[in-house]
Batch of 2 targets.
Target 1
Amino acid sequence: MFSKGATMRQEIAKLVELDRQRTLLTHIGAVLGWDQETYLPEKGIEERSEQLSLIEGLAHEKAVDPQIGELLAATEAAKDLSPEEAAYVKLTRREYDKETKLPSEFVMEYAKQASLSQAAWSQAKSANDFSLFAPHLETMIRMNKERAAYLDSGRKPYDVLLDLFEYGSTEASVAAVFSVMKKDLVALLDKIAAQPPVDDSFLHVPVSAEIQAKMSRYLMDAVGYDQKRGRLDTTAHPFTTTLGRDDVRITTRYVENYFPSSIFSTIHESGHALYEMNIDPHPDFRGTRLAEAVSMAVHESQSRMLENFVGRSRAFWEKHYPAIQAMAGEPLANVDVDRFVKAINKVERSLIRTEADEVTYGLHVIVRFELESAIISGNLAVKDIPQAWNAKIKELLGLDVPNDRLGCLQDVHWSMGAFGYFPSYALGNLYAAQFWEVMQEQIPNLEQKISRGELGDMQQWLKVNVHSKGSLYLPGELLQKVTGKPLDPSCFARYLNKKFS
């Protein structure tokens, strides 16, 4: 695999060795983070924040090792690099330049404050008290502005932060895509709202956490999640985390009076996990940056596709509804598959993003994008966030927000300092629709195969065309290679209009 010259081979091999040491430290940090979100005792948070700070500092030291700069300088001059080598060198240069701009003290303090902030958010959400979280949110906003200044003081801070999650994106480029998407979603939502409402009352009944856990494990198997390479746990906000190449864990949450919350969270997170489990651009680059997801939007395309394009399709439930119906017992006893599929696809204006339907979901993301922009620019103060949130929800979704738990405290992202992440969710829908169109063309009788529970061809197509590539290509390059065209919002509009017509 390595380039022809012996000297060059040694240089890239050394880069890979250093990179793998960094990866191991980030995976150790992920174990600590996963434990904090699942099983950590309440009083353990102070030392846990210090542990995470130390690990982040050590990982940062590995990432800014001067040897990396020296090896890159020598390697970049080579003319005989393979495609994988060239992509790896380019990616390593980009990340090295970024990491070396961040002082180690800042990286360590950021990790500590993010850990404390997440714990405060969880308490604030449970108590429905924004004031418990506000001081920590102030800190995360300040530190994100500092991070943006370290990385590129000549650019708008929010553009720098967006770039961390979707390389090459800017506030202007995201706003341009969202303006088209908003128009499409509002038009479709108005059409649906004019029709008689779908009855989903039978979904809003008690189903125990034990039964929901059984449903979740069944569905993990159904979509191809290898439970020998991960596990399922519960948390306040579902997430997926990679603790190792063969240790990709997911979490869900059990809402006693609405079991679809857990089953679709599980399918969604399984989509993320399958992507992580299948990344393998080349065996020689396992455990390096090249064997990581290319962007959060591509990541979200895989979770949103599995959750909605597959998991909410009638074809999927033709095979799997009898099993879920039997597990649920009385609530679904007299509900046929058609009623169930209509109910789980009900479109209505709602308060919670993670439980929103496919049509209104994008509007939830736009709310957060517009608020983030105002927060990072300094036009929205922390004390005014609840009121601004409620006003945006009223404007775009026509709903009154009764409390902060159902409003600005519902998402974990800002507590982590993940400003710039939210647009990835909506962009992920657009990527998913574009991938889906091509996959349908290239896999004959895809819907019939899904209805028989045969997801192998679909999984193989995604593995070969998307998952395995890791960071071999930039997001736009990957989309172009797979679909033959740049990002096209009309694909998602076509998908929604066909589905809900």
Note: The chain has a mean pLDDT of 95.
Target 2
Amino acid sequence: MTNRPRVLLVMGTRPEAIKMAPVRRRLARTCEVQVCVTAQHRQMLDQVLDFFGIRPDHDLDIMSSNQTLTRITTRILDGMSRVLDEAQPDYVFVHGDTTTTFSAALAAFYRGIPVGHVEAGLRTGDMRNPFPEEMNRKLTGSVASYHFAPTEGARTNLLAEGVSPESIIVTGNTAIDALQDTVAALQAAPRPVLFTPDHQRILVTVHRRESFGDGIRNVCTALRRIVDELDNAHLLLPVHFNPNIRQTVQDALGDHPSISLIEPLAYPDFVQQLAAADLIITDSGGVQEEAPSLGKPVLVMRECTERPEAVAAGTVILVGTDPDRITGTALELLTDSTRYQRMAQAVNPYGDGRAAERIASFMGFLAGQTDHPRRPEPFQVPS
């Protein structure tokens, strides 16, 4: 291995691409970088690749209609075998908790290739919630050689599982790097704001597998109640492509004059709406990190979260999928300016925009590059 190690970044979904884009850009200064996409989510992935100017070197193109977790896993394992033959990487980097993450990490482990796990150490303690992400995180952590933990809490989780302290680097979350880059781009070239002017603006995302069925129906009930209770609210909901979500949401909310159901937004368009919104209601992991960076209170439609730092900091509130909890908490925030401002002004515990820089610096340190003579200083939440 030369002092410019070969690193293969693997990503398959939109959130992975968003959070790996800053890593790719920074690593390119110290490493030979290739990108492999599995296209676990083809449409939403391609939007992000285009925005960040990423041209994959390898594309497994595995997405198929009604794909199962078993099919995704086996196709990635098979495809990664060919990619690893071609790319001959010194390291394989994966991100987060998707089936792409685990499958690519396993393929690299089988070949004896060290795995770098970006956004390592997140845990809920419940293997079924979120499903299958909690399992994917733990299994990826079991085969990873280097753990890029976003927070001190994630590091503590890894240490409790017996991970060597020397293999853990606390970096902050690369989602904040990507968000800051995107906000800067939007300042130069704004995208349209889709909310009605002079209204209370509520942005909603919902897609979690464990909420399919009654959970989604309960969420829709709550959303209708919220806008019915407010005189001038406008609720914007980009509807996920998954048919388990799409039809239920359309049937329950499609006729409401204060609710706009729209197609999934390209990442910069979503960030533009995020910046314009007053309140975020979501079951997304990444949005729990992004919205507080913009001073937006977040209601998380989950019973537990792998990102407890935000709950402790006061930037998010867990409301589950109970319609009464969602409705009551949303109305309280939108009608109580003191409580709203307390959430909006809380310190975001997830990053300072330098996570990818710390990862690249660590790789330079590993490679013995003279510009990186020591391990990077860990990310610390501002006091």
Note: The two ends are 41 Å apart (CA to CA).
